[in-house]
Amino acid sequence: MVQAVPVRDNVTTWVDVCPLAAIAPNTGVCALVEGEQVAVFRVGNGAEVYAIANYDPFSKAFVLSRGIVGDRNGVLKVASPIYKQNFSLLTGQCLDDETVKIPTFTVRVVDNMVQVAGEHPHVA
User: Measuring CA to CA, how many Å separate 6 from each of 33, 58, 106, 115?
Assistant: First the structure.
Protein backbone atom coordinates (compact mmCIF):
# COMPACT_ATOMS: atom_id res chain seq x y z
CA MET A 1 0.00 0.00 0.00
CA VAL A 2 1.42 3.38 -1.06
CA GLN A 3 -0.01 6.65 0.17
CA ALA A 4 0.66 10.18 -1.02
CA VAL A 5 0.09 11.60 2.45
CA PRO A 6 -0.30 10.01 5.86
CA VAL A 7 -3.72 8.51 6.46
CA ARG A 8 -5.44 10.32 9.27
CA ASP A 9 -6.93 8.27 12.07
CA ASN A 10 -10.46 9.51 11.40
CA VAL A 11 -10.66 8.17 7.83
CA THR A 12 -13.19 5.36 7.95
CA THR A 13 -14.66 5.37 4.45
CA TRP A 14 -12.73 4.78 1.24
CA VAL A 15 -14.12 5.31 -2.25
CA ASP A 16 -12.87 2.96 -4.97
CA VAL A 17 -11.68 5.00 -7.97
CA CYS A 18 -10.33 2.41 -10.40
CA PRO A 19 -7.78 -0.39 -10.70
CA LEU A 20 -4.21 0.94 -10.57
CA ALA A 21 -3.60 -0.45 -14.08
CA ALA A 22 -6.34 1.84 -15.45
CA ILE A 23 -4.09 4.85 -14.80
CA ALA A 24 -1.18 4.96 -17.25
CA PRO A 25 2.15 5.83 -15.64
CA ASN A 26 2.69 9.58 -15.18
CA THR A 27 -0.90 10.49 -16.01
CA GLY A 28 -4.08 11.28 -14.13
CA VAL A 29 -7.76 10.44 -14.08
CA CYS A 30 -10.74 12.32 -12.71
CA ALA A 31 -13.00 10.71 -10.10
CA LEU A 32 -16.16 11.90 -8.43
CA VAL A 33 -15.73 11.47 -4.67
CA GLU A 34 -18.76 12.42 -2.61
CA GLY A 35 -19.83 14.91 -5.28
CA GLU A 36 -16.41 16.51 -5.69
CA GLN A 37 -14.09 16.14 -8.69
CA VAL A 38 -10.72 14.72 -7.64
CA ALA A 39 -7.67 14.39 -9.91
CA VAL A 40 -5.80 11.16 -9.13
CA PHE A 41 -2.27 10.75 -10.50
CA ARG A 42 -0.02 7.73 -10.84
CA VAL A 43 3.67 8.64 -10.74
CA GLY A 44 5.99 6.18 -12.44
CA ASN A 45 5.27 2.52 -13.15
CA GLY A 46 4.62 1.52 -9.54
CA ALA A 47 1.83 2.24 -7.09
CA GLU A 48 2.79 5.80 -6.15
CA VAL A 49 -0.46 7.80 -6.29
CA TYR A 50 -1.51 11.34 -5.38
CA ALA A 51 -4.87 13.10 -5.32
CA ILE A 52 -5.64 16.81 -5.61
CA ALA A 53 -8.68 18.86 -6.52
CA ASN A 54 -9.42 18.71 -10.24
CA TYR A 55 -10.35 22.43 -10.29
CA ASP A 56 -7.79 24.82 -11.77
CA PRO A 57 -8.32 28.17 -10.03
CA PHE A 58 -6.56 30.08 -12.83
CA SER A 59 -8.65 28.86 -15.77
CA LYS A 60 -11.70 28.20 -13.58
CA ALA A 61 -12.10 24.79 -15.23
CA PHE A 62 -12.03 21.20 -13.96
CA VAL A 63 -8.96 20.11 -15.94
CA LEU A 64 -6.03 19.27 -13.66
CA SER A 65 -6.44 15.51 -14.15
CA ARG A 66 -5.39 16.12 -17.78
CA GLY A 67 -2.26 18.03 -16.77
CA ILE A 68 1.36 17.09 -17.37
CA VAL A 69 3.01 15.22 -14.49
CA GLY A 70 6.64 15.95 -13.72
CA ASP A 71 8.86 17.53 -11.12
CA ARG A 72 10.37 20.90 -10.38
CA ASN A 73 13.58 20.77 -8.39
CA GLY A 74 12.55 17.43 -6.92
CA VAL A 75 8.96 18.47 -6.14
CA LEU A 76 6.38 16.22 -7.82
CA LYS A 77 3.92 18.43 -9.67
CA VAL A 78 1.26 18.67 -12.32
CA ALA A 79 1.11 21.50 -14.86
CA SER A 80 -2.37 22.71 -15.74
CA PRO A 81 -3.22 21.99 -19.38
CA ILE A 82 -4.71 25.48 -19.79
CA TYR A 83 -2.32 28.19 -18.52
CA LYS A 84 0.46 25.82 -17.34
CA GLN A 85 0.57 26.79 -13.64
CA ASN A 86 2.23 24.04 -11.62
CA PHE A 87 0.79 22.49 -8.46
CA SER A 88 2.59 20.26 -5.96
CA LEU A 89 1.03 16.79 -5.95
CA LEU A 90 1.86 16.42 -2.26
CA THR A 91 0.67 19.74 -0.85
CA GLY A 92 -1.49 21.37 -3.54
CA GLN A 93 0.66 24.51 -3.35
CA CYS A 94 0.91 26.43 -6.62
CA LEU A 95 4.61 26.54 -7.48
CA ASP A 96 4.13 29.66 -9.60
CA ASP A 97 2.01 31.74 -7.19
CA GLU A 98 2.57 31.24 -3.46
CA THR A 99 -0.83 32.76 -2.64
CA VAL A 100 -2.70 29.87 -4.32
CA LYS A 101 -3.15 26.40 -2.88
CA ILE A 102 -5.66 23.71 -3.88
CA PRO A 103 -6.98 20.87 -1.71
CA THR A 104 -5.26 17.50 -1.56
CA PHE A 105 -6.91 14.21 -0.69
CA THR A 106 -5.82 11.13 1.20
CA VAL A 107 -5.28 8.34 -1.34
CA ARG A 108 -4.03 4.77 -1.21
CA VAL A 109 -3.73 1.57 -3.22
CA VAL A 110 -5.15 -1.62 -1.71
CA ASP A 111 -5.17 -4.90 -3.66
CA ASN A 112 -4.38 -2.91 -6.83
CA MET A 113 -7.46 -0.69 -6.33
CA VAL A 114 -6.91 3.08 -6.06
CA GLN A 115 -9.00 4.52 -3.23
CA VAL A 116 -9.64 8.08 -2.06
CA ALA A 117 -10.75 8.89 1.48
CA GLY A 118 -14.51 9.38 1.50
CA GLU A 119 -15.01 11.07 4.86
CA HIS A 120 -13.21 14.34 5.48
CA PRO A 121 -10.93 13.80 2.48
CA HIS A 122 -9.14 17.16 2.46
CA VAL A 123 -5.64 17.08 3.83
CA ALA A 124 -4.47 20.58 2.86
Answer: 19, 28, 7, 14
Helices (H) and strands (E) in the chain, counts: 0, 11
Cα separation of 117 and 96, whole Å? Answer: 28
User: 0.85 cut: is pTM over it?
Assistant: yes
Question: From residue 93, how far is each of 10, 37, 44, 72, 112 by CA, in Å?
Answer: 24, 18, 21, 13, 28
What's the pLDDT tens digit per position in 69-90? 999 999 999 999 999 999 999 9
Burial 67-97 (b: 16+ CB within 10 A, else e): bebeeeeeebbbbbeeeebbbbbbbbbbbbe
Q: How far apart are CA 120 and CA 117, in angstroms?
A: 7
